[in-house]
Design brief:
about 5% strand; 5-stranded mixed β-sheet; mainly alpha; globular
Length: about 525
């Protein structure tokens, strides 16, 4: 047989199974493309992994800021059957506290690790939501970028904002969903957008300002049908009204919206406005300069009109009240990502690489110190031990000051319901401390709080003002004679721990007369503020 004949016969023979598999196997590039396809679930896994890595510092620490301590205290009370805005009170919406309460009830602990895991999963879900929208409008590659930009953007803050499971972080998922759903153009999506916007508002109330951009998006992308806008507004309102199913609606409205006027219009009281504003803007630009550059490169398009409206609304929430906290920027992130990500497609591979470096480098700069943050590291162990020794599990205590973690760490609920004494003296971060803030106290808070103390006096009363902890040296008990009189008459000092005076109930106060405001009279419980 000739050599050519042998070659033809060899080619005609069937290949062995392993050899056939090798010849028909996809190349490395094809395998990467298949993995990158959204149908395979590869991107979902990578987004989840990236989010876990980004939020990893939060898994090894309980508290990052006072917001977490406040929510944890509220969740603790609710998990034991307490009612929000009656048994435990803060001037924030209810869903964060309910989420904390659910994790405490399910795990039978007060650990914040489950909440931090949920916050990470929520961030991953939010990243997938914006990725879906950008992929639909631009490309799969731009969708990948949208997910990465949101994850990086959400952690490129100082630890108290970037790693905490606070109101802003938890509102990110429903906020992203609301923005994306308003752009789908159907009646059903308009209804779902209203539901998502209502949930975002019940997590962080500033999202209510998004009702205008949401209505614009529904109208712009839904054939300019007014019925869709009406449906959006109705479902948003109904979702917020659903609070009445598990909390007194009037109290919710007062503490969340109508009682916060002094915070919204505080320019006259705000301290170092220009300095604080420049600081928060500078830190945001450091962490998000690439995101901002991409959004500007995207340029103006009529179809993006609603996204620019969302962006302006988010910027308004940063400025309102002139307090400029870092976590206020979270309402800016979703529209900024949705504007920026499609611009990636117009750039070369080299430029994309440079942009990626500009995203990752500052994110790592913020992420690294999150493992050992310098703030909120107070050691309250001796004080918590004393509280537990002097009380039983069902006893309530009152902390005159702004240390909400004492309630959560000790497992003792706040008497009078208020997690912070700030509502009684008008104190708020970013405002100058002093007696002049008394007029900014939450309307009705002092009377309601004192009535509750007289009806159900705490076993212990802790005065942190004597130690000037968290600026409470400006608010001694005597600044409110009614409070000072209450403590002087019915309590005695039993210890000073961690510079905090601890008072124990000696005898119960007389009942409050119906229809009368408590006063400092020795013959009754009418305590004048």
């Amino acid at each position: 047989m000739t050599p050519s004949r042998e070659r033809r016969v060899a080619l005609a023979e069937p290949l062995a199974p392993d050899e056939a598999a090798r010849q028909h196997a996809p190349s490395g590039g094809a395998r990467l493309a298949r993995f990158a396809s959204w149908k395979t679930g590869g991107p979902i896994g990578l987004v989840l992994l990236g989010t876990i890595v980004a939020r990893l510092p939060s898994f090894g620490r309980q508290l990052f800021d006072s917001d977490e301590a406040t929510i944890a205290t509220m969740g603790m009370v609710v998990s034991r059957g307490g009612v929000l805005y009656r048994d435990v009170i803060d001037r924030k919406p209810p869903l964060a506290a309910i989420l904390y309460a659910a994790t405490f009830w399910v795990t039978d602990t007060r650990s914040l690790l489950p909440v931090h895991v949920i916050a990470a999963l929520g961030l991953a879900a939010a990243a997938l939501v914006v990725a879906y929208d950008v992929r639909r409008r631009a490309s799969a590659n731009a969708g990948w970028w949208a997910a990465g930009l949101l994850i990086a953007g959400a952690v490129a803050f100082e630890p108290a904002a970037g790693q905490a499971a606070n109101y802003s972080q938890l509102a990110l998922l429903p906020g992203c969903a609301a923005i994306v759903l308003t752009r789908r153009g159907t009646a059903r999506s308009a209804a779902y957008a209203g539901l998502a916007l209502g949930i975002a508002t019940l997590t962080r109330q500033t999202w209510i300002i998004g009702l205008g951009p949401a209505a614009l998006g529904v109208w712009l992308h839904g054939g300019r049908q007014r019925a869709h806008v009406a449906l959006l507004v109705a479902t948003t309102a109904l979702t917020i009204a659903a609070v009445g199913l598990f909390a007194p609606f009037s109290a919710f409205w007062h503490w969340t919206f109508s009682g916060n006027g002094s915070l919204l219009f505080a320019l006259g009281h705000s301290q170092h406005v220009a300095t604080r504003g420049w600081r928060t803007l500078r830190l945001f630009l450091i962490g998000h300069i690439a995101l901002c550059w991409l959004a500007l490169r995207r340029g103006l398009h009529f179809a993006d009109l609603d996204l620019w409206a969302w962006l302006l609304a988010g910027l308004a929430t940063v400025v309102v009240g002139f307090r400029f906290f870092d976590h206020y920027w979270f309402q800016v992130l979703p529209p900024l990502v949705l504007l920026a990500a499609p611009a990636v497609d117009r750039h070369s591979v080299l430029t994309r690489g440079l942009v990626a470096v500009a995203v990752v480098a500052p994110t790592l700069w913020f992420w690294t110190p999150a493992w050992s943050p310098k703030d909120f590291n107070d050691n309250w162990t001796p004080l918590v031990a004393e509280i537990r020794e002097q009380t039983h599990a069902g006893d309530r205590i009152t902390v005159w000051g702004a240390i909400p973690e004492l309630y959560w760490r000790s497992g003792r609920a706040p008497a009078g319901g208020l997690v912070l004494a700030d509502f009684l003296v008008g104190r708020s971060a970013g405002l100058p401390d002093g007696r002049e803030l008394l007029r900014d106290a939450t309307p009705g808070a002092r009377t309601a709080w004192l009535r509750s103390l007289y009806a159900h006096p705490p076993k212990l009363f802790l005065d942190t003002s004597v130690a000037s902890i968290r600026s409470y040296g400006h608010y001694p008990l005597k600044i409110l004679p009614s409070v000072s009189s209450f403590v002087t008459r019915y309590y005695r000092r039993i210890a000073t721990v961690s510079r905090v005076n601890i008072y124990e109930l000696v005898h119960r106060p007389p009942p409050v007369r119906t229809g009368r405001e408590p006063t400092s009279s020795a013959h009754g419980a009418n305590v004048g503020i």
